Amino acid sequence: MENSPTEHFEHAEHAEHVAHLGDSRLTKVSITIAILAVFAATVGSLETIETAATIGAKNQAVLAQTKASDAWAYYQAKSMKQNLYAALSETAGAKSQDFADRAKRYAGEQKDIEKQAREYEAKAEDLLEASEVHEKRHHILTIAVTLLHIAIAIATIAIILRGMLWPWRTAIALGAAGTAAAAAAYLI
To answer: What's the pLDDT at 9?
Structure first.
């Protein structure tokens, strides 16, 4: 969710106005709003971090997969040369030992290239799995920050209704649910 960087200041300003009214119930509600705003800002920042981590991990996975593809292409080129020299070694007479040596060299190089390609593929898989974890966290944090914003709005209704308890209690419950959801995002 996109929030104004000064949103928490706005909530604090509203709390200050309510504090001047001298109603302790309204003061408690306004303090609740300020606390919920801090939680919402924190969870919103965590959501942004997880979004960036998702994108970063996916980009790194694509890069690793590209390197694996390049390595496999290089492997295929070495394989073609190895096969060509192996065939030439069987028909070339005087140069057949030279061709056989080249074929053996290319076969040895292929093993190193294959190992490297498989390492890149494994790295790409690990990075994709990491991106999925970050993406799940992002979705949970989106829900959490939404609950916190709804809690702020409902707590504001408590001020409008001059301190009625049901909106305030509802806001506290939604704020707790949003906070719990944010914490749960890091338990997956």
So the answer is: 60
